[in-house]
Each structure stands twice: as C-alpha cells, then as structure tokens.
Design goal:
globular; four-stranded antiparallel sheet; binds magnesium ion; alpha/beta; binds adenosine-5'-diphosphate
C-alpha cells in the first residue's frame, strides 16, 4: 500500500521572539491510501494547523510534506491549487453553505467554480444525495435543514469532486451526539465504499473510534 500523505520531520512555529509558539518539533506521519485516521490532541496544540499545512494553505514550515508521493514544499501556486481541487477536500465544523443556493446547487458549486461540466456529474450527484440521505431535500435551502443535514450537504459538496483525501476538522463539533454518529457512519461509508482516505480531527473518543487508526498530537509530535 502506498502513502497518500507523508510528513517528515515537520517543524512549525508561529510568531517569533517572546511571541513565539512552537507547534511542531520533528513530527512524522505516514497515512496509507484507503485508511481512516483520527487525529486527537489538546485544544490549541496544532491540529487545524496540520490540516492547513497538508493542503498547502500554510507554507511556512520546514521538513517535508508529500501528497500522493509528491512533495508540496517546492510546488508553485498553480501546482498547489491543482492538488487542492483534484486531490483533497476539506470539511469544517461550520458548514459554510451558501444561504441563497439550494442543497443541490451548493453541492455542485466546486464543480462549477473549477470550470468542469455539471452534466458530467449529474449521476454522481444523485448517488451522493442518496448516500447522504438528502434526496428529498435537494431543492431546499440550508436554513430549511437541521445541523446534521447541513453537514451532510457540506460533505457531499466536498466529495463530489472525487478527492483522494478528505480532511475533516471537528466535523461533528457543532452537532448533538446522534447527528454526530450519522456523520461518522457517512465517513465510514465514504472510506469503505469510495476508497476515500480520511484524516479527521476530533475531540470525541466515540468519533475517533470510527477511524481505523488514532494519532495523537503530543509534545509537538504525532504519536500512535
Ligand atoms: P487546534 O486545532 O489543535 O486547536 P490550532 O492549529 O488552531 O490548534 O492552533 C495551534 C496554536 O497556534 C494555537 O495556540 C493558535 O493560537 C496558534 N495559531 C494558529 N494559527 C495562527 C496564526 N495564523 N498566527 C499565530 N498563531 C496561530
Ligand atoms: Mg482546531
């Protein structure tokens, strides 16, 4: 099995001098294609930062980060944005849906923005609406959905582009435990049925247990 994410000797700090905050100090991590990894650790320790670094959204680090075998360190902006639109997708705690677009329009938005043809995704859209339990809600607006439904909509939006990697940052942080469990079951299906590699940040031991591997951010390093 090959590694879709590889982090070697990662060093990262914010600020300098008195305001310096050390985040990573020689962290290593290898994530195999098709795995579902849960990342846990204290608040403020650098979990969100790691997801930004992996997506090339924060390029101020030392060490090496490889996505699909390619180092992002030396990539230019257009190579990085290609990785972001074709290799990986993010899901956040807050759903970031566009209020005046329907469920279906929200899910199609990344396809539209990247200049791809919507008609090529028609079948996949129907399939994802079914998988996320949103078929009956496809023409509704976000305000007409529960929190769990809004998050499922944002997950459908994240995976319609067929990313290899899904990065989820406390996706259930704003949900009650039963809606949170639905999201975890959805992640499990996306991982097992669509083969999407998932790296999720979570505070909840119940949610973390859905992953097939738990990694902890501890003492500025990533440990099993
Ligand atoms: P976590 O997601 O584990 O709660 P974060 O990755 O958000 O932690 O943040 C780790 C630490 O880095 C925190 O102390 C935070 O305040 C700090 N931090 C995050 N982003 C920045 C930034 N852009 N500038 C300065 N400090 C930051
Ligand atoms: Mg965070």
């Amino acid at each position: 099995m090959s590694n879709v994410i590889e982090i070697r000797d990662l060093r990262k700090r914010f600020g300098s001098g008195e305001n310096e905050a050390l985040i990573y100090d020689g962290a290593n991590l290898a994530i195999e294609k098709g795995s579902f990894v849960s990342l846990t650790g204290p608040s403020g320790s650098g979990k969100s930062t790691l997801l930004y670094l992996i997506g090339g959204l924060d390029r101020d680090f030392s060490g090496d980060i490889r996505i699909g075998g390619r180092s992002i360190t030396g990539m230019n902006d257009s190579e990085l944005s290609e990785i972001r639109s074709f290799m990986l997708s993010y899901v956040f705690q807050f759903y970031n849906l566009v209020a005046n677009l329907t469920v279906e329009e929200n899910i199609l938005l990344p396809i539209e923005l990247s200049g791809r043809k919507i008609k090529d995704y028609k079948h996949k859209l129907d399939d994802l609406l079914e998988l996320t339990g949103l078929t009956a809600k496809r023409n509704n607006y976000p305000s007409q959905l529960s929190g769990g439904q809004q998050q499922r909509c944002s997950i459908a939006r994240a995976v319609l582009t067929e990313p290899e990697i899904l990065l989820a940052d406390e996706a259930t942080g704003n949900l009650d435990s039963s809606s949170g469990e639905e999201i975890m079951k959805l992640f499990k299906r996306l991982n097992e049925e669509k083969g999407i590699t998932i790296l999720q940040v979570t505070h909840s031991p119940e949610c973390a247990a859905y992953g097939n591997r738990i990694v902890k951010l501890s003492d500025h390093k990533l440990v099993e």
